[in-house]
Automatic annotation (TrEMBL):
Organism: Mycolicibacterium sediminis
Protein name: 4-carboxymuconolactone decarboxylase
Top-level taxon of origin: Bacteria
Transmembrane regions: none
Pfam families for this protein: CMD (PF02627)
Span of domain Carboxymuconolactone decarboxylase-like: 33-116
Cross-referenced PANTHER family: 4-CARBOXYMUCONOLACTONE DECARBOXYLASE FAMILY PROTEIN, BLL4600 PROTEIN
InterPro entries: 4CMD/NDH-1_regulator, AhpD-like, CMD-like
Amino acid sequence: MANLRDDGLKVFRELLPGVLPDGDVDFGGGFAPELMEIGVESVFGRLWGRDGLSRRDRSLVTLGILIAQRATDELHAHFQIARTNGLTDEELAEVIYHSSGYAGFPAANTARTAAVEAFAEDEHPRT
């Protein structure tokens, strides 16, 4: 059986280059320290690592769900991931426009704000 943690770390690093250091990562400490481990293994290792949908398609699906949930923190990262997966800014704008009809204007506007912040961060990466 594949090591879901290692697979998840690999996928995470591919989707968000430079966010995690090379080698093993210790997410420990603080309140609910296992949450990041669960996310790395189940979301990035098990779901993003699956065949069946391209990463580009997974980005589209994920953005739609996160916009509907108004998951601001996750939207920020997933707009960056969507760019990594080849979606253009024009396509990402269309995702936001389309979501306004299904998730409502406030959710789409929240997504627009998250995208603007994520894109600004991409233009001025952290060192």
